[in-house]
Amino acid sequence: MSLGFYVDVQRCIGCRTCQVACKDRHNLQAAGPRTRRVGSFECGTYPEVGMFHLTVSCNHCDDPACVAGCPTGAMFKSDDGTVQHIDDRCVVCRNCMITCPYGAPQFDEDENMIVKCDACKALREDGRNPVCADACPMRAIEFGDVDELRAKHGDAVSELPVLPSAATTRPNLLLHASPEAQRSDFNEVVL
């Protein structure tokens, strides 16, 4: 079994509620690391322009580069298929940050430690969803067994031009992509 996220890119409006809820849940400073990030992208040229938003966190990959790059075993693949981090084992070498193509592990300067999405492990142990999924006002984020999510969302893809190749780490991320999100002529914009 592998757990992962499904994101409906067509529903995401870029409000960043998921990002703020994640920061709040994990007591991360506003200007500090973001374990869930929302990017906004434009594509095309006038008059044929488009825009899309994409929320990403740790993809809890089947072949996580961060785990392979961690010399102490602080970053590991747990029994439930999520990628977890043990703070006490971490020597803050930042190899996980360097090796992860998605930028999921982040350095928290205030705490001098690595932080990353743990798929809200404590909430899930209480039978609840990750906070990002519950906070999304557009219901664009789902979390669960990847096979079940794939069956439920048959049109989902694992790759978009804006993301690194899925062949590298085999991310447990499924996306319902808008036509704009499938274009390769995109630019990230700051809103």
Describe this structure in words.
The chain has 191 residues and is of the alpha+beta class. The chain has one domain: 2-Layer Sandwich (Alpha-Beta Plaits). It contains six helices and ten strands; from the N terminus they run βαββαββαββααβαββ. A three-stranded mixed β-sheet has the order 8-1-9. A three-stranded antiparallel β-sheet has the order 3-2-10, with no helix packed on it. The longest helix has 9 residues. The model has no long low-confidence stretch (mean pLDDT 95). Keywords: 4Fe-4S, Electron transport, Iron, Iron-sulfur, Metal-binding, Repeat, Transport.
Summarize the structure.
This protein is an alpha+beta fold and 191 residues long.
List the helices and strands and how they pair.
Blueprint: E1 3-8, H1 17-25, E2 37-45, E3 48-56, H2 65-69, E4 75-77, E5 83-85, H3 95-99, E6 106-108, E7 113-115, H4 121-125, H5 131-135, E8 141-145, H6 146-152, E9 173-176, E10 186-189
Parallel strand pairs: 1-9
Antiparallel strand pairs: 1-8, 2-3, 2-10, 4-5, 6-7
Number of E strands: 10
Average pLDDT figure: 95
Stretches where pLDDT falls below 50 for ≥5 residues? none
Instruction: Give the CA-CA distance, first to last residue.
Output: 37 Å
Query: Helix proportion of residues, in percent?
Result: 10-25%
CATH class: Alpha Beta
Order of helical and strand elements: EHEEHEEHEEHHEHEE
CATH architecture: 2-Layer Sandwich
Pfam families: Fer4_11, Fer4_2
InterPro entries: 4Fe4S_Fe-S-bd (IPR017896), 4Fe4S_Fe_S_CS (IPR017900), ET_IronSulfur_Cluster-Binding (IPR050954)
Organism: Eggerthella lenta
Protein name: 4Fe-4S ferredoxin
